[in-house]
Every structure is written in C-alpha cells, then in structure tokens.
Amino acid sequence: MRRKVVFHIDEIDQWQRTSQNIHNLCDYVATVPEEQLQVIVVVNGDAIQGYLQAIGEQTVAQHPSVKFHACHNAMQKHHINGDQLPAAVQIVPVGVLDLIQLQAAGFAYIKP
C-alpha cells in the first residue's frame, strides 16, 4: 500500500522529535515489503533556522528518500538565503499553502 505523509515543523524545538519520527517510520516501512512511503517535511516559522543547525543538516542527510521543503517567507523573515540550506531542500513560496496543497493531494498531516 502506498502511503503519503507530510510532517510540519514550525517550532525549532520540534526538529529532534520530527527527525526521530521520520527515522522510526522509514525504518519500519523498510521491513514491510508491501508498504510504500512518500514523506515530505515542510518547515516554516522559526523552525526554518533548524536547516542551518546540525539537527537539520543531519536529518536531511540521513533521509535521502524524504523531500524537505523550506518556506520562502520564513527564510526572508530570518534572513536566510537558499544557498545556506542543504542542497536537497526545495524552497516553496508559502509553507502554509504547501501544506494545504499536500493535504489536498492525499498526504496525511503530522505535527509532532
């Protein structure tokens, strides 16, 4: 069965919990051949700064099959340029709109 999930991080202190949730989920699904998983992480608000810290960089590096999105509005507010983000991170214009679109496309919403 194909499952789609979007994790939402908008608080800097939620990076660790979200990273662990992603790790646990991906590890489990890897042991169940009939399960297929598509994971996207949308980061906005103050949590955008996590991409510049070890936790954000490690989370992105450890999960190459997971797509990571960064809210452009949050980046502007925190004076972050795209070249400061890990290379795998995709910038989206508005994080909240991204969440709306993903949920409309059938993604389950998780906010740790």
Automatic annotation (TrEMBL):
SUPFAM superfamilies linked: DsrEFH-like
Entry's transmembrane regions: none
UniProt-listed PANTHER family: BLR3518 PROTEIN (PTHR37691)
The protein, known as: Sulfur reduction protein DsrE
Species per Swiss-Prot/TrEMBL record: Furfurilactobacillus siliginis
